[in-house]
Specification:
Length: 245
């Protein structure tokens, strides 16, 4: 996998909270593919994850595909670990947490026959953050783009991308946030006059750039070649390419 020295220490520490979901080799693969999916600005395929991790020419591609198709880990368990991590790190002690479970999927109706119209509309509005998350994961992380054919891989790749979305948000909240981030976004896109919080694109770009910095500063402190300087400049620009949208 990517050497520890080439990943931000803050990201390694965060991913370490999920270590016990996997075997030791499985965790190494997970950490590399999660970092690769976040770092990659191209297609959100399994090979795209390898490219983003810088391992496309180092690892046999079957290692990455096998992680989704055959490896011993549970997507549900990973989700539970991430949920606990959110509660432990992002919520104040004793905070109330609303958990919504949709039990109407098999049919077109509702099991609630007594709530007022205003209450029903309010509950529907709660879904907005969910829809935004789906859109961000598709646009920034390529969720749903994996071209899997084996059933277990199909069942795992989209939740994996959504979990990477969660990892980005947790990392940014704990380690990447700066008060000037929203102001910088307003300066680049002045039509967002009331924007007070950074977008997910800002969070992902910040983590990508932090990862790029870790990769290059881990190398021996020799004078860089022109090619290496251009590689850093191109990677840095690509990390925030989506801001032009």
């Amino acid at each position: 996998m990517l050497p520890d020295a080439t990943l931000p220490a803050s990201l390694l520490a965060l991913l370490g909270n999920l270590r016990y979901v996997f075997t030791a080799p499985g965790f190494a693969t997970f950490a590399a593919l999660a970092t690769g999916l976040i770092a990659n600005t191209g297609a959100g395929t399994v090979t795209g994850m390898l490219t983003g991790a810088g391992l496309a020419r180092t690892w046999p591609h079957d290692r990455a595909h096998a992680f989704f198709a055959r490896a011993a880990w549970s997507s549900d368990t990973l989700g539970l670990y991430l949920s606990r991590l959110i509660v432990r790190t992002l919520l104040p002690a004793g905070a109330a947490l609303t958990v919504a479970v949709d039990d109407t999927l098999p049919g077109p109706g509702t099991t609630d026959l007594h709530s007022t119209p205003a209450t029903l509309v309010s509950r529907y509005a709660w879904r907005w953050s969910t829809e935004v998350t789906f859109a961000e994961a598709r646009q920034e992380l390529g969720a749903g783009q994996a071209r899997n054919r084996i059933q277990l891989a199909v069942e795992r790749t989209t939740p994996f991308a959504l979990y990477c979305h969660t990892i980005v948000v947790i990392w940014y909240t704990l380690h990447g946030h700066h008060p000037a981030d929203a102001a910088e976004r307003r300066e680049r896109q002045p039509w967002y006059t009331s924007k007070a919080e950074p977008a997910f694109a800002d969070m992902a770009a910040e983590l990508r750039r932090t990862t790029i910095a870790a990769r290059f500063t881990a190398n021996a402190p020799l004078k860089p070649t022109d090619a290496e300087i251009r590689a850093v400049q191109q990677a840095w620009a690509q990390a925030g390419l989506d801001h032009a949208a």
